[in-house]
Every structure is written in structure tokens, then in C-alpha cells.
Design goal:
Blueprint (H helix, E strand, L loop, with lengths): L7 E5 L7 H17 L2 E8 L2 H6 L11 H10 L4 E6 L2 H4 L3 H11 L3 E7 L12 H11 L2 E5 L3 E2 L2 E2 L2 H9 L3 H8 L3 E5 L7 H4 L5 E3 L10 E8 L4 E9 L11 E6 L10 E11 L6 H21 L4
Parallel strand pairs: 1-2, 1-4, 2-3, 4-5
Antiparallel strand pairs: 6-7, 8-13, 9-12, 10-11, 10-13, 11-12
Helix pairs in contact: 5-6, 7-8
């Protein structure tokens, strides 16, 4: 809840993945807020409506964890993210009651930014026209944004999911407007990379959809540096002694020591994860992967 004398510009949505369509809403809300000397806030929902209605696990469809999504949103200039609990109470609300809730949580609301397909209230009875009419009585205006397209097709979270499942990382990056990344705290691994002469940093991603298992061209991003890398995402079938999915990234260049969380960007898919009969064969293939990743980085220098 905010102070009643604080003017606010709001944008509303699930914002799963924060793709180009979401970015349009957020950038417009931030620009409006700056011009008006107001705060820009995203209103979103937890759990995701898909989880509520279909009972499916987040790792089967979510593009980001809630915290990861919120960090991406605030990185675009929002003051904060307001999470509404998506449950029986919210789904039973009439459109009018939902708008009352919005105004109660943001009493200084001046403008709302939504996509053209925005629906709200029980049975999705409310649309953008109704939101505008209700807003007139509550003192706010509504900006409705057309869908963003890429190569003639609407950008959507479902389209990003499809590209991610097929490891089309170029399309994923184009739809997101940024490289796809897996973020987290570095965890202890089994030390096999170091034994093979290719030490890695290890992440164990949970709670969101991952691309196809395999080897990727990667960049390790810390708070102070970006490090060219090659990474394996999967379950290490050559050893098969740990069922957890891990992301193991090997740096291709020298780097300064660092601590804290990292993000590993995945730029291009090199090959599927595979099982080798013995460690020497795996090491030989890793050498090929390193060469392929180095060639990719050489052809795509960072600015």
C-alpha cells in the first residue's frame, strides 16, 4: 500500500519473461510517470493464473521465477512491483470490485497501461473499454497498447516458451529483447570439470522452464564483468549419479575473482547432451565444444 498523496502510473499483467510486448507497457508507464513526477508500478499476480487454474508446476511453463521477473521489471525503471494474490477471492471479483481494489492499493493512481487483450474480473468480463469507463469515475485514464510483433507474428510468452523448448536461442533473445539467462548463486559441484581440466561454475536452476538439455555458447555475467564461456545444461549422463538439473559453465578467458550471484546467458545451442562411455571421450568432445564456442564469440564480439 502506498501514501494517498503519491501519484502513480500503473501497468497490469502477468509479465512472464518480460518480453518485448511487456517492455512496451513498462517503458510507456515509466515515461508517463517521469513526465508527471509520479511513481511507476507494475501490478502482477502470484501464483501465475496458469498454475491456479490448471495446477501445473512452474518449471513446466514459467519463463522466470517471481523474483527474477520483478528484478527485470524494476531494471526497466519501475519503482516497484505489486503482487496480487491470484486465488478464489480475486477470480470471483466483479470488474468493478477489481478496479476498487486497484484504487485502494494505489490511491494516487493517474493512468493505467494495458495491452489490447487485457481482461479482468470474474469470467474475464471486463475489457479495456470497461476499464476506461470505470477509470473515468475513479480519476484515472487508460492507455491501451497494440500487440508487438516479430517477423509478422505476435510476441507472447507462449511463443517464447516454444522457442525455448526447441533451443532456438536467437529467437528467444529477439522476443525478449535481451539474451536469455539463468541466474542464481554458485553452488558446489562434483569437481569433475576440474579433474578433466575444464573447471566450471555450477548453478542448479529451479522453479521455471529451461531450454533443451545440451551444450550452449554462453556468457557468465557478474556485477563487474562479462566472461565468454561454454555451458552444459542437463543431468550429466556420462556419470549419472545426481538427478538434479545443473548448468555448468566453463570460462573461455581469464577473469577477476568474484563472489555473489551470477547470470549465465545462453546464446546458441551447440549440441544435445549425450552420454560417453569414458571420460577421455567426454574430454575430447569438450575440446570441440570449447573451440566452437570460442569461434562463436569471435564472430559476435560484445560491444
Amino acid at each position: 500500500m502506498q501514501s494517498s498523496n503519491q501519484r502513480t502510473v500503473v501497468t497490469i499483467g502477468n509479465f512472464d519473461g518480460v518480453h518485448l510486448g511487456h517492455r512496451r507497457l513498462v517503458v510507456a508507464a515509466v515515461a508517463d510517470a517521469r513526465e508527471a513526477g509520479a511513481k511507476a508500478v507494475a501490478v502482477t499476480f502470484e501464483p501465475h493464473p496458469v498454475s491456479f487454474f490448471k495446477g501445473v508446476a512452474p518449471e513446466t511453463f514459467r519463463l522466470q521465477s517471481p523474483d527474477g521477473r520483478d528484478e527485470t521489471l524494476t531494471g526497466l525503471g519501475l519503482s516497484r512491483v505489486d503482487r496480487l494474490t491470484f486465488g478464489e477471492a480475486l477470480t470471483a471479483m466483479s470488474p468493478e470490485t477489481f478496479v476498487d481494489l486497484l484504487v485502494a492499493r494505489h490511491p494516487g493512481i493517474a493512468r493505467v497501461h494495458v495491452g489490447e487483450d487485457f481482461r479482468f474480473g470474474s469470467g474475464r468480463a471486463g475489457d479495456t473499454v470497461m476499464l476506461g469507463a470505470l477509470g473515468e469515475g475513479k480519476g484515472f485514464t487508460v492507455a491501451v497498447h497494440e500487440a508487438v510483433t516479430h517477423l509478422g507474428v505476435v510476441v507472447s510468452s507462449s511463443r517464447v516458451r516454444g522457442a525455448l523448448r526447441s533451443a532456438d536461442m536467437g529467437l528467444v533473445a529477439a522476443l525478449l529483447g535481451r539474451p536469455y539467462a539463468i541466474a542464481g548463486e554458485i553452488a558446489s559441484g562434483h569437481g569433475r570439470g576440474r579433474t578433466l581440466g575444464v573447471p566450471t561454475l555450477n548453478l542448479y536452476p529451479l522453479g521455471h522452464l529451461l531450454p533443451a538439455h545440451g551444450v550452449y555458447v554462453a556468457t557468465i555475467v557478474t556485477s563487474a564483468q562479462s566472461i565468454s564461456a561454454v555451458a552444459n545444461l542437463g543431468v550429466r549422463p556420462t556419470f549419472a549419479d545426481d538427478p538434479r538439473i545443473s548448468l555448468e559453465a566453463h570460462a573461455l578467458t581469464e577473469f577477476a575473482a568474484f563472489e555473489g550471484p551470477v547470470a549465465v546467458q545462453l546464446h546458441a545451442y551447440l549440441r544435445p547432451e549425450q552420454r560417453f562411455e569414458e571420460a577421455l571421450a567426454l574430454r575430447a568432445q569438450i575440446g570441440i565444444d570449447i573451440a566452437s564456442a570460442a569461434a562463436w564469440h569471435a564472430a559476435h564480439p560484445r560491444s
